C-alpha cells in the first residue's frame, strides 16, 4: 500500500462527519483510507488487520486481484444498461450462480435487504398462484432474534426493539417462533404459510449455530407442510462457514436462497434471490424490478466471485483456519471469554463483562491494530477475510488475549 493521499487527520474527518452525516452508526474511531488483502490502513498510515471483513462482504479480502481485474475490464466497456435492455454479462452470471447453488433461476438485486424483500414478495405470489392461499392471507414464519435488514417490512418481524421503535406501523403477515425449535415451527406453520424464512446461522444475533439436525428438520417440515424454505445466506454464505452455503453442512437445498454481501466481491452491491423454477417463475414483466439489479458491472464482479468459489479454495481455507480460530478461542475461555460459537472462519465471542463490554474490547483491539465489531453489548464477532493466513489469525488471537488480560 502506498502513502495515503488524504491530508486531513482522522480526528478532523471524524469531527467533520458529525454535523452532516446521519447518526445511525457508532463506528470505531478509525478512518480507513486504503486496503489490500486482510489489511487496511488509516489516513495516518497505521495498519490494521481486518477481522470483520465488512460483515462478510469482503470474504475474498480487500481488492482481490481477480475481482479488481474483472471490475476494471468491465468499467472500460459497459457499466449500466438497466433491465430495459439485455446486457452481455447477465446470462453467464445467472447460469453460473444457479449451478453453484444447485438451483434454477436468479433474480438479481443490489443490497441484502432488497433480496429479502424480493424473496418475501416471490413467496407470497407463489402462495397465491401455486399453493392456492386465499388472497392477502399468506403468512411467513420467521425466527426470533433474526436479522434480515432494515426496511419497514423487514423490521416488522424483527424482535430487536431498537430496530423497530419509532418505525411503525408495521407490515402484517409474519409469525415469529423461537430459533432452533422445530416443535414451535411445526405449530406455527399452517395452510396459509407461504414460507419459513431463516438464517442458517444467526449472524447479528452473535453467530448462533443451531443444533445439528435443525436445518434438515426445517427442510423436512416445509416439504411435508407444502411451504417454501427460504434460507437467508447473505452473511453465512459464499465460503464463510467452510462450505459454499451454510445449509450444505446438513445437505439441505432450500427452495429459495438469498445471497448478498460477498457476492459483490467488496466492490459493488450485488444481491440475488436464487430459487427453483416453480418459485421464481411466478414473476412476470412489470411485477418486480430494480434499476441497478443485474447491471453489467455487478454481473461481471458477481461472475468473478462465483469463479473464485468454484475452485473450492476459499471453502477449504475457512474449514482449515476455522480449526485455528476455534483452538485459539477455546484457550481463552475462562480468561476473559465466557464462551463462543463458531463455524468455519466465523465466531461470536461472549466477553466476560468483568473484563469489558464488547465495544471496549473493540476499542482496545483497535489500539493493537485489529478491527472487530461488537454486537448485543458483550459479544464480539470475528469474520476475517477467508484469505487470512494462519500467522495473521494467530496474531489477532494473541491481540485478543492481550486486551482481555
Ligand atoms: C442475514 C442477513 N440478511 C440481510 C442483511 C441485510 O443486508 P444489507 O445490509 O446489504 O441490506 C444482512 C446484513 O447484515 C444479514 O446479515
UniProtKB/TrEMBL annotation:
**What EC number(s) does its UniProt record assign?**
2.6.1.13
Specify the signal sequence span: none
Source organism per entry reads: Streptomyces curacoi
Instruction: Kindly name one Pfam family recorded for this protein.
Output: Aminotran_3
NCBIfam families on file: Orn_aminotrans
Q: Which domain of life is it from?
A: Bacteria
Look up the record and name the pathway of this protein.
Amino-acid biosynthesis; L-proline biosynthesis; L-glutamate 5-semialdehyde from L-ornithine: step 1/1
In Gene Ontology terms, what is one molecular function of this protein?
pyridoxal phosphate binding
The family note in this entry says: Belongs to the class-III pyridoxal-phosphate-dependent aminotransferase family.
> What is the official name of this protein in its record?
ornithine aminotransferase
Q: Indicate yes or no for the key word rRNA-binding.
A: no
Amino acid at each position: 500500500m502506498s502513502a495515503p493521499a488524504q491530508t486531513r487527520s482522522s480526528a478532523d474527518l471524524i469531527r467533520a462527519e458529525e454535523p452532516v452525516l446521519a447518526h445511525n452508526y457508532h463506528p470505531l474511531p478509525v478512518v480507513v483510507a486504503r486496503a489490500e488483502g486482510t489489511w487496511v490502513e488509516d489516513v495516518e498510515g497505521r495498519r490494521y488487520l481486518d477481522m470483520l471483513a465488512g460483515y462478510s462482504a469482503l470474504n475474498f479480502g480487500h481488492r482481490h486481484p481477480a475481482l479488481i481485474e474483472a471490475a476494471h475490464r468491465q468499467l472500460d466497456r459497459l457499466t449500466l444498461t438497466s433491465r430495459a435492455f439485455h446486457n452481455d454479462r447477465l446470462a453467464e452470471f445467472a447460469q453460473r450462480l444457479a449451478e453453484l447453488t444447485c438451483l434454477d433461476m436468479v433474480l438479481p438485486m443490489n443490497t441484502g435487504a432488497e433480496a429479502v424483500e424480493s424473496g418475501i414478495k416471490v413467496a407470497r405470489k407463489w402462495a397465491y398462484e401455486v399453493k392456492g392461499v386465499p388472497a392477502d392471507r399468506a403468512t411467513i414464519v420467521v425466527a426470533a432474534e433474526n436479522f434480515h435488514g432494515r426496511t419497514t417490512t423487514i423490521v416488522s418481524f424483527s424482535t430487536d426493539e431498537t430496530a423497530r421503535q419509532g418505525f411503525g406501523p408495521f407490515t402484517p403477515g409474519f409469525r415469529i417462533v423461537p430459533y432452533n425449535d422445530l416443535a414451535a415451527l411445526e405449530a406455527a406453520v399452517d395452510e396459509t404459510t407461504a414460507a419459513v424464512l431463516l438464517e442458517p446461522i444467526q449472524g447479528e444475533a452473535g453467530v448462533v449455530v443451531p443444533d445439528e439436525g435443525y436445518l434438515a428438520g426445517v427442510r423436512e417440515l416445509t416439504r411435508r407442510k407444502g411451504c417454501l424454505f427460504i434460507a437467508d445466506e447473505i452473511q453465512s454464505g459464499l465460503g464463510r462457514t467452510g462450505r459454499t452455503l451454510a445449509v450444505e453442512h446438513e445437505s439441505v437445498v432450500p427452495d429459495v436462497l438469498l445471497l448478498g454481501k460477498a457476492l459483490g466481491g467488496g466492490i459493488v452491491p450485488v444481491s440475488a434471490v436464487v430459487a427453483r423454477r416453480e418459485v421464481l417463475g411466478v414473476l412476470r414483466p412489470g411485477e418486480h424490478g430494480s434499476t441497478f439489479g443485474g447491471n453489467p458491472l455487478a454481473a461481471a464482479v458477481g461472475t468473478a466471485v462465483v469463479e473464485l468459489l468454484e475452485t473450492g479454495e476459499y471453502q477449504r481455507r475457512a474449514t482449515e483456519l476455522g480449526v485455528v480460530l476455534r483452538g485459539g478461542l477455546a484457550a481463552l475461555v475462562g480468561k476473559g471469554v465466557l464462551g463462543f460459537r463458531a463455524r468455519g472462519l466465523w465466531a461470536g465471542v461472549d466477553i466476560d463483562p468483568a473484563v469489558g463490554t464488547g465495544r471496549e474490547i473493540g476499542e482496545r483491539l483497535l489500539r493493537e491494530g485489529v478491527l472487530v465489531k461488537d454486537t448485543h453489548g458483550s459479544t464480539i464477532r470475528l469474520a476475517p477475510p477467508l484469505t487470512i493466513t494462519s500467522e495473521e489469525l494467530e496474531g489477532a488471537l494473541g491481540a485478543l488475549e492481550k486486551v482481555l488480560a
